[in-house]
Amino acid sequence: RQRDFVPALVIGSGYGSAATALRLGEAGIRTQVLEMGRLWDTAGADGKIFCSMLQPDHRSTWFQDRTEAPLSSVLWADVINRDIEPYAGVLDRVRHGDMSVYVGRGVGGGSLVNGGMAVTPQRDYFEEILPSVDAGRMYGKYFPLANRMLGVNTPDPEWLETCDSYQYARVSRGHAHDAGLHTTVVPNVYDFDYMRREEAGEVPQSALASEVIYGNNHGKRSLDRSYLPEAIGTGNVTVHALHRVRTFRQEQDGTYVVTVEQIDELGNVLGTREIGCRWLFLGAGSLGTTELLVRARDTGVLPRLGAAVGEGWGTNGNVMLGRALAEPTGQIQSGMPALGINNWRDPKYPVFAEIAPVPAGLDLLMTLYLAITRNPERGRFRYLPENDSVRLDWDIDQGAPSVEAADAVFRRINRAAGTELRNDLFGDDRAFENRFTYHPLGGCVLGEATDLHGRVRGYRNLYVTDGSLIPGSTGVNPFVTITALAERNIERVLAEDF
Ligand code: FDA
């Protein structure tokens, strides 16, 4: 059968894929990037590319008839989610029993929907989670490179102390200090100068117009404004949106054949075709990549894939919570967090908690946090032949260490501030939400399922290049680590395998 052939194929267009595609293109290697989500470059009827968080429409969610926001209720009332038309929207909530995983869908992957927090992990923790990676090289070369390429910046300190849009963060920081906790400014890929001009009324608003999680119309340097245009600019890289990879196999001659469905924005399958390649890079995210490999192993298509494929998955210890406050936090709250509570050095309750906004357009007298904790629990992926699906096994009890750590730290803050946790935000009366994660990590861990540079064990010219390489935890928001590791790995792969 006639099929297309391209030297290098990259599946997915998130952080790992974008960095990999750029370096392949620069090296003169013709590369195709296949992304199941759409290209977000065209305005809808309202003149905007992305919809607002306060009035979400079909653009918000990947093929559902109702939005599935992380904060699902206020005063136990179902006032946040909305009925919508099924569509190739930008945010997906992939449900696996007790755990659901939020991921971005579109050219740019998670960079389209995330809060932009760009944090380099503490070196000693990085050395602990990936001891076989040369930390000297990472901190001397690849972390600085990732920060530069992603356009990481910090807010002007004076403006941060005086602007209206971070009043919520300053109030929350004050309470942490009262409890004797350390706080830190969190770098971001959102352009803080642009945000300053938003507050001054000089430019169209995005972060200050409650935009986050369903995309930002301005200000954010997502991958479609950083790595990906540079990759395309090499003249060697093409990006194909609405192309969903179903399976792949290896031919006798060692090349790979990928089966890909082309869909439209309503989910209709327009056609299925095969694309051959010599070098195959899996960058479909922790869930996407692990699913493709587990299916390939357990259906016998790639039988030499080892037992480590599908293991070592974690939530980065994510747990969300809110506190009720007595003092005002501001009506306009920047959608991009800029301050965090850093209690990571605490040997008993290590927590790094971003102070998250409640961008409701009115002051709800509360403050929200996404806490990252050191949760040693790990999930694993299993192939289910009865419906040809791959399932993540994660039990609700595995979230308990995260809740325990967050409870200890926020109990301390509440004692100092005379405040309480909110228990009306997650659909029932729980104060801690640990049934979802924004930070899926692992499944094809570096040095276990792959060699020390992401080459999948057992198969030549097959690589993992995304968050599935990281063993379940980074201690901070993960995309800088994912990008830096991808930069490190592709440099070695280009030098040795091409
Ligand atoms: P990523 O998930 O980015 O990209 C994978 C891509 O592959 C997706 O575009 C997907 O559609 C595509 N794909 C999957 N399967 C496919 C298939 N079979 N065929 C074709 N394409 C396929 N992190 C951080 O550091 N700071 C932050 O502030 C935040 N905030 C945040 C908020 C929210 C709401 C979310 C959901 C996530 C965050 N994150 C974050 C997490 C961060 O976005 C995440 O860690 C990275 O995007 C992961 O990068 P990867 O390269 O692993 O894959």
From TrEMBL:
InterPro entries: Cholesterol_Oxidase, FAD/NAD-bd_sf, GMC_OxRdtase_N, GMC_OxRtase_C, TAT_signal. GO terms for molecular function: cholesterol oxidase activity; flavin adenine dinucleotide binding; steroid Delta-isomerase activity. Residues 104-127 form the Glucose-methanol-choline oxidoreductase N-terminal domain. PROSITE patterns: GMC_OXRED_1 (PS00623), TAT (PS51318). Pathway: Steroid metabolism; cholesterol degradation. Keywords: Cholesterol metabolism, FAD, Flavoprotein, Isomerase, Lipid metabolism, Oxidoreductase, Signal, Steroid metabolism, Sterol metabolism. GO terms for biological process: cholesterol metabolic process. It comes from the Bacteria. Its EC number is 1.1.3.6, 5.3.3.1. Its cofactor is FAD. Belongs to the GMC oxidoreductase family. This is Cholesterol oxidase. It comes from Saccharopolyspora montiporae.
